[in-house]
Amino acid sequence: MKTEMAYYRNGYQKSIESKIIDCIKSQKGYDVVLEDTCFYPEGGGQPADKGILDGQEVLDVQEKKGVVYHTVKNSITIGNVVKGEIDWEYRFDLMQNHTAEHIISGLAYRKYGAHNIGFHIGKEFITLDFDKKLSPEEVRTLELGVNEAVIQNKIINIYYPTKEQLQKLDYRSKKSLEGTVRIVEVPEYDTCACCGIHTKTTGEIGCVKILSADHYKSGVRLRMIAGKRAFYDYDEKSKNADTISHLLSVPVKDIAKAVEKLKKEKDTLQWKINLFEKERLEQIANNIKETKTVVLFEKVSNAKTLQHFASMLYQKAEVVAVFSGDEAGYSYILMSQKKDMQVLKQQLSEKFSCNGGGKKEIVQGKIQANKADIIDFFKEI
Known about the structure:
The chain is built from 9 helices and 21 strands. It has 3 domains: 4-86, Elongation Factor Tu (Ef-tu), domain 3 (Beta Barrel), CATH 2.40.30; 92-235, Threonyl-tRNA Synthetase, Chain A, domain 2 (2-Layer Sandwich); 281-380, Diaminopimelate Epimerase, Chain A, domain 1 (Roll), CATH 3.10.310.40. Helix 7 links the parallel strand 17 (291-297) and strand 18 (317-326). The protein starts with a strand and ends with a helix. By secondary structure, the protein is α+β, with helices and mostly antiparallel strands. It is elongated.
């Protein structure tokens, strides 16, 4: 017996009383079948509803061959009439974001010939994958377009065309479909076959924001949010902008220029610091006389500088060992023209907590050890 699907009769129905017609033991608990349900099962890119059934949390909802299975922890007696209530805030969020996805996909197809080849509603954002690259200006046009559709508050039409009507219908991603086909139409924006649940009007979607556009395969992947998700995103960014504005003592509209100026000043200071560091290390290297082994502990800004410092000592000793950091953890470089540094690194690892890699002439990595113990080690080689 197939399940009556109240969510298709009325996508805004939040609760239902229905008879249990089956209860099957499953891996997660029990899969309960109702005569009629307002719980939407996972499908059409839309996650399954959450909610409560007969006082129990609904863990999952799936549909197979017209039967909707509600997974709960404990068994429910077959024949009982029980109450089910969906998590409406969660459902409406999915409806808003799913409907926004339709409009963006429709606009991308109509304006740029880009086909939606993948769609996922995640906990934080929605991803849309297209088979064609879109420029930043084109992505901006899509964002403006979907928000214009929201402002227009168009009524969304859902209908089931006959086979003959479907053949004549121009809809997105048109392909051969078996059985009854459900068409979701946003007038002037999109017509698409879809089994998901959508808002009644575009105005109910609320604000829509495209967060990013990244290269994906031969096309582009968009990340977007709508409704409360978009509001919370705006609210967080607005608070951050106000904080930065206060810290830099500039109006919010000028914070980008202020940060750019601050970055330039930082880069200039960093250049001066790097120059001073280079001169300091060169002076140290020039004061080192030729010897068998050079072991030095110097704090440097990064691994590249450490390697450059070691290379300045390369001609002055058979073995150069340079360490930067403290006893909680040193970065190190071993260099030699005559000895195998991979062998030396192995000996170092046998005595201390040490990792790294490289080749015969140079090895670099991390080590945790006492400075005095490291010095004693190199006295013995």
